[in-house]
């Protein structure tokens, strides 16, 4: 795909200014090595790179969050500034958000919109510099797609809230100092009305983080158990009962700020260097067989149209318009495409896909990608929920009748 | 598109005015009356379209056109696809005019293009034969030198609007080389037989040549490359048209799902129907991207055109056909009637999918052009 967006003079100036800043803040030789395509020199520069230090520096400079207001350490910038920063970071193999992706992308914007002045003062600058890392405590074993039915209880006791319950699919919980917690404060109200939003101290007594071993055998996520955790009322964000509204702010930012980004280690750490498409093509044997060739060519076409569609959405944003349907269709398409493609790669490899010598890293990676792909149609909104949203919001089709509308949460049937 | 992927205000206005015109002039009755005629189109509508300057939109100004790009032509084609227009626009403006532009001498361009641009001449491209091959390998029709000119002998099949075009661009073999020739519709030894067509709103003909006098288009030796480029441009044009057809299907299915009530609910509130509509929306958006990208490549990135054209033709072909089929299913019984227009789109979808090569064909082409490789 060769579509490129030309910078306006204002955008070109910002890009240059950011590049000069990057040059002054990465190890010597980094940029030159990339410009020359010298991998050895890049490795040498890379060995001097300290990711935590980088996170702090880019945070303090405001480039980690161009959209945040200046008074909280951002640039009070436009959406295109965020795009320019991301493009340059990706090109220069630098990490996008660092480990505090959820803090900068989700918690910060939520606090900016809903928190008290004292809370903003206390938390925002340390989010931006990644001195305090955040996680998101939303999903529960009994509340996935129907998040608002969540059951973790927060009961008032004097000036404190006592938290009891369980969260799941919590990435970064093991490193986080704080979590965005939504809990039920009044079970007698309908599900959306009885929720409250808290800043949850992750290292306090009564919080237990257990790695969740997933389908691949690895652990990208955690389960978080609350048993008698006490949170001061000062950690409540917004009013009691306002939790759903505030959670929606977080979710909206998840879609807008993080779309297209992954929470994979490569995205945290930077340094990615191989073209995944080329790696895929060259990993497929027997491409002179017409059936194989047809399949690979189909993946090529689908991958390209997906990128073109993402580009159309980005281009619309760059010229100051809001994207139409092209902005909403990528995730469903990509999840399914990725599952088919990783499954095809297994078949193409034949028996080598199901049994390999212990030192065969390629075979291991292929199997891992195949298994990991099942998550793409579940995490961040299942394909079924997203199709509902596309049909209802873009096509204007009617909503499903809801069985729990207006019913007190405690009386709703739950699994 | 000043910014790739985003239409300018001027392009949006062009779309809006094309849409208005086609709503008035290419409604269900107009299409059905055209498809029941032998000619397959309405002369008065053709004339009005000429007056709007549509035929010359992508023809350079020095040849009497408006000098816009394939992106503007694509906007028109997309709207024509949405309206399932029955007219020889695609054959004359995309196949015919582009072949003349790609192959013609300066003199031939100066002579022919202004007449194509004002709609007074209608051209088509006769390249396919009974073998049904979409590339030069299927061309056997023989050209021989005769009386200082050329004579053609053989048969062309699947010639779009071959019986109503006033001039034919014919691909033939002169010795081993592929060359393009101009043949007047009333030339001696030319027999045109209309074919029955799955898509009755797009006419095709068998054309027999028997010592038919012909003029070489362009210089000897230039035919193969000009034909190849013309077919790539045609694939891009057809992709735009298919996107419009797919959009009509999606709009029609959505409207029906919103208004048709069964079991006391609009059927669009059932996820089985709702999700089908969402899947159609995804396919339509992806198809738009491929079509817009390939149109951009025609004017902005010559070296990308071959890949972009095959990519767009393969994706849009399959998307349109799939969306048309799903639309019939969402419509239920009414979708199976002659009365409802959806069958016109379903027929056009399959016809356009196959014409110029289907998805498999273009994926093979694409594999050869990229690092996927392969021999066939």
Stretches with pLDDT under 50, minimum 5 residues of chain B: none
Question: Roughly how many Å is the radius of gyration of chain A?
Answer: 23 Å
> Going by CATH, what is the homologous superfamily of the largest domain in chain B?
Butyryl-CoA Dehydrogenase, subunit A, domain 3
Distinct helical segment count of chain B: 11
DSSP strand content of chain A? 5-15%
CATH architecture of the largest domain in chain A: Beta Barrel
Characterization of this structure:
The complex is a heterodimer of chains A (415) and B (376). Chain A folds into three domains: 9-94, no CATH class; 117-122 and 126-258, Beta Barrel (Butyryl-CoA Dehydrogenase, subunit A, domain 2), CATH 2.40.110; 274-380, no CATH class. Helix content of chain A is 44%, strand content 13%. Chain A has 14 helices and eight strands. Chain A has helices at 9-25, 30-36, 39-46, 51-60, 79-91, 101-114, 117-128, 243-258, 265-269, 276-283, 290-318, 330-349, 361-372, 383-394; strands at 134-137, 153-157, 160-170, 178-184, 195-201, 207-212, 221-232, 236-237. In chain A, the strands form two sheets. Chain A has a four-stranded mixed beta sheet. In chain A, strands 2-3-7-6 form a four-stranded antiparallel beta sheet, with no helix packed on it. In chain A, strand 6 and strand 7 (221-232) form a beta hairpin. Chain B has 376 residues and is of the alpha+beta class. Chain B has helices at 9-25, 28-36, 43-51, 70-82, 89-103, 106-117, 223-259, 271-300, 305-331, 342-354, 359-369, and strands at residues 123-126, 142-146, 149-160, 167-174, 177-184, 190-194, 204-216, 261-262, 265-266. Chain B has three domains: 9-117, Acyl-CoA dehydrogenase/oxidase, N-terminal domain (Butyryl-Coa Dehydrogenase, subunit A, domain 1), CATH 1.10.540.10; 123-221, Butyryl-CoA Dehydrogenase, subunit A, domain 2; 224-369, Butyryl-CoA Dehydrogenase, subunit A, domain 3 (Up-down Bundle), CATH 1.20.140.10. In chain B, the strands form two sheets. In chain B, strands 1, 2, 3, 4, 5, 6 and 7 form a seven-stranded mixed beta sheet that branches. The interface between A and B is large, with 51 and 49 residues.
